[in-house]
From TrEMBL:
<dbReference type="InterPro" id="IPR039697">
    <property type="entry name" value="Alcohol_dehydrogenase_Fe"/>
</dbReference>
<protein>
    <submittedName>
        <fullName>Maleylacetate reductase</fullName>
    </submittedName>
</protein>
<keyword id="KW-0560">Oxidoreductase</keyword>
<feature type="domain" description="Fe-containing alcohol dehydrogenase-like C-terminal">
    <location>
        <begin position="167"/>
        <end position="348"/>
    </location>
</feature>
<feature type="domain" description="Alcohol dehydrogenase iron-type/glycerol dehydrogenase GldA">
    <location>
        <begin position="14"/>
        <end position="155"/>
    </location>
</feature>
<dbReference type="GO" id="GO:0046872">
    <property type="term" value="F:metal ion binding"/>
</dbReference>
<comment type="similarity">
    <text>Belongs to the iron-containing alcohol dehydrogenase family.</text>
</comment>
<dbReference type="Pfam" id="PF25137">
    <property type="entry name" value="ADH_Fe_C"/>
</dbReference>
<keyword id="KW-0614">Plasmid</keyword>
<keyword id="KW-0520">NAD</keyword>
<dbReference type="InterPro" id="IPR056798">
    <property type="entry name" value="ADH_Fe_C"/>
</dbReference>
<dbReference type="GO" id="GO:0018506">
    <property type="term" value="F:maleylacetate reductase activity"/>
</dbReference>
<dbReference type="InterPro" id="IPR034786">
    <property type="entry name" value="MAR"/>
</dbReference>
<dbReference type="Pfam" id="PF00465">
    <property type="entry name" value="Fe-ADH"/>
</dbReference>
<dbReference type="InterPro" id="IPR001670">
    <property type="entry name" value="ADH_Fe/GldA"/>
</dbReference>
<dbReference type="GO" id="GO:0004022">
    <property type="term" value="F:alcohol dehydrogenase (NAD+) activity"/>
</dbReference>
């Protein structure tokens, strides 16, 4: 590598990683200067929300167990109003990307700091990216004030993540790393992080599928998820994320599953135009062909491989291809309507990537 030249602006979350990190919540809350916290979780994770509340003791002001996929605006408004009524000075978001996204929606308007306790591999806790959905439209943006100040990664909290969700969430994290490796604003540090993220997840996920209670495999996957969140937060996304965003927004598809199906095909599309990224991905996957390597990994782990299987209709593919062409964005290979339509066709069928 010659003529190295880049701008690197590391983002400033404090990270506490390891088994039992949840026990550090009270101490970390005090370090942040918090006095009253609103705890967020999904309805399904109310038990976790209560455990988190108990860990905060007298500084626990209330629980809002209504986080939902893609942060619906009405839920965000309700949570913001509760935070204001309770007069809290800290949000503790315990859960996946949906719960952390709700915390970000509160922080966006109030500047209240977030402590994130991730329980999936989505990586939102390490990014300044927010998204709020009004009807069928998801508004996304970047704002440093939504970046959690402290992140507690406790692999024990991921033991309950069902195996199929662990797999798709893990491949979603791999997708963040893949696009960071060919992002136009990548740098040597983000590439190191992204390559190691793919390696950790590709090695950890098969062990989780074999035994979902394998603590060291869970730790390895969560470590990979942390790296993937850092890679995503520090770089711009390209074709893969744009396609998934379009598919998710237009057709209301599940987030991680959509990423899992599309990734091998988006990778194949870009393969010839990003040789250095492909070499890193191949090394991390220990596979000669990165796109096929991801496809084979997903198949081996029992993940969904077709958009058809996610409920997409064949007649939807043209409008997805049109939408992907609408707003130009940087991508290693120029955006070609016919080739993108072909990519979507293969993803719809669940065919191997070419
Ligand atoms: P999620 O947060 O929607 O969680 C899915 C389901 O899994 C929920 O019912 C949740 O309660 C449950 N769950 C989570 N952790 C669990 C655990 N350990 N045990 C048992 N159940 C558990 O899923 P996700 O994939 O983490 O997040 C998806 C959302 O995050 C999408 O809206 C996506 O756009 C967003 N996201 C944002 C960013 C960002 O940087 N802003 C990054 C990645 C994803």
């Amino acid at each position: 590598m010659q003529n190295i030249s880049f701008t690197y602006s590391p983002l400033g979350a404090r990270v506490v990683f390891g088994e039992g990190s949840l026990d550090r919540l009270s101490e970390e809350f005090a370090t942040l200067g918090g006095t009253r916290a609103l705890v967020l979780c999904t309805p399904e994770q109310t038990a976790l929300g209560k455990i988190v509340g108990d860990a905060l003791g007298s500084r626990f002001a209330g629980l809002f167990p209504k986080a939902a996929m893609h942060v619906p605006l009405d839920i965000a408004r309700e949570a913001r109003s509760l935070a204001s009524t309770l007069g809290v000075d800290c949000i503790v978001a315990a859960g996946g990307g949906s719960t952390i996204g709700l915390g970000k929606a509160i922080a966006l308007e109030s500047n209240i700091p977030i402590i994130a306790i991730p329980t999936t591999y989505a990586g939102s806790e390490m990014t300044p990216i927010y998204g709020i959905t009004d009807g069928n439209e998801k508004r996304t943006g970047r704002d440093p004030k939504v970046l959690p100040r402290t992140v507690l990664y406790d692999p024990a909290l991921t033991l309950s993540l069902p195996t199929p969700m662990s797999v798709t969430s893990g491949i979603n994290a791999i997708a963040h790393c893949v696009e960071a490796l060919y992002a136009e604003d990548r740098n040597p540090i983000t590439s190191l992080i992204a390559e190691e993220g793919i390696r950790s997840l590709a090695q950890g996920l098969p062990k989780v599928v074999e035994n979902s209670a394998d603590q060291s495999a869970r730790s390895q996957c969560l470590y990979g998820a942390w790296l993937s969140g850092m890679a995503l937060g520090a770089t711009s996304v390209a074709l893969h994320h744009k396609l998934c965003h379009t598919l998710g927004g237009m057709l209301n598809l599940p987030h991680a599953e959509t990423h899992t199906v599309v990734l091998p095909h988006a990778l194949a599309y870009n393969a010839g135009s990003a040789p250095e990224a492909m070499a890193r991905i191949a090394r991390a996957l220990n596979s000669k062909n990165p796109a096929l390597g991801i496809y084979d990994l997903a198949t081996q782990l029992g993940a969904p491989t077709s958009l058809r299987g996610l409920g997409v209709k064949s007649e939807d593919l043209d409008k997805v291809a049109d939408a992907a062409m609408k707003k130009p964005y940087p991508n290693p290979r120029a955006l070609e309507r016919a080739a993108i339509r072909e990519l979507l066709e293969r993803a719809w069928l669940g065919a191997a990537p070419v």
